[in-house]
Amino acid sequence: MNGALSTVTIVAALVLAAWYLLRAALDRAPSRFDLLAMAVFGALVTVLVVVAVVGLFDGSRPQETGTFAGYLITTVGFAPTALVLAKMEPTRWGNLILGIGCLILPVLVLRLQQIASVTGA
Description:
CATH class: Mainly Alpha
Distance between the termini: 6 Å
Low-confidence stretches: none
Strand content: under 5%
Number of strands: 0
Shape: elongated
Number of domains: 1
Radius of gyration: 15 Å
C-alpha cells in the first residue's frame, strides 16, 4: 500500500465527512458540488485500489490475499454506492449518507494497510 496516497485518501475522507455532516446538521440537501466532490473522491479511492492491485503482482502478496481482495472490492465500491444512495435521497439524509460513507472509508483504508503490512506489501 502506498503510504502517501493512503494518507491523502484518509485526510480527504475526513475533511469531506466533516463537510457532509455539517451540511446534514444544517438541514441541507446534497448539492451538485457535494455529489461532484464525492465522485472525485471516488476516483481518488479507485486510484488507491489500482495501486494496491498492481502491488499484488510485484511478488509481495499479503498472507491473507482473499481478505485483502475483499477489502479492495469493498473499498472501491463504497464511494459510488454512497453517491447513488445520496442521489436517491434529496434531503438532509443524503448528506448524512455521504458523511457516514466518508467516515467508513478511512477505516477500510487503514485495514488494507494493516493486512498489507503483515508481509510488507
